[in-house]
Amino acid sequence: xxxxxxxxxxxxxxxxxxxxxxxxxxxxxxxxxxxxxxxxxxxxxxxxxxxxxxxxxxxxxxxxxxxxxxxxxxxxxxxxxxxxxxxxxxxxxxxxxxxxxxxxxxxxxxxxxxxxxxxxxxxxxxxxxxxxxxxxxxxxxxxxxxxxxxxxxxxxxxxxxxxxxxxxxxxxxxxxxxxxxxxxxxxxxxxxxxxxxxxxxxx
Length: 203
Hints:
CATH architecture of the largest domain: 3-Layer(bab) Sandwich
Oligomer: single chain
Shape: globular
């Protein structure tokens, strides 16, 4: 079971522009690593239940430690994964290309339509905005999640993930989320995004 614990991924943010190194340092070292630690703490506590320990005689859906752990697990683990997708895509030149751009143009008629729509969706999101490959529909789709464990769609693989929470931009942009989203797009690494797209399709 110990082998299933999460380890924080390592990132080089030196090529990121607009979004400050201070913001990225806090975002990565405090928030993201904090979620990794909490996910592992929850893992250890669930491990007790899974190996014959813990009180299971009084379990119920109103309140029980096991219920709280199960709920916290999806919150913490999704927080880790979503942040990794977000960080993965940073550090590029922002120039779209490849198979993903082609798929975007086929679905939304032009890349410009997609970018306008995605950015507008970021402005209405309270948490996350995710361009995914929906394995059930076999097409790319945009989904919103206001909380880490709310709004996700089963079988949808994240490709492009934007963190819309204020912690991702407030130090640098104040309440100007629109400017942050514009800079986010300028930093996208489309090589990474295309790789995620191809992997999601099983290629």
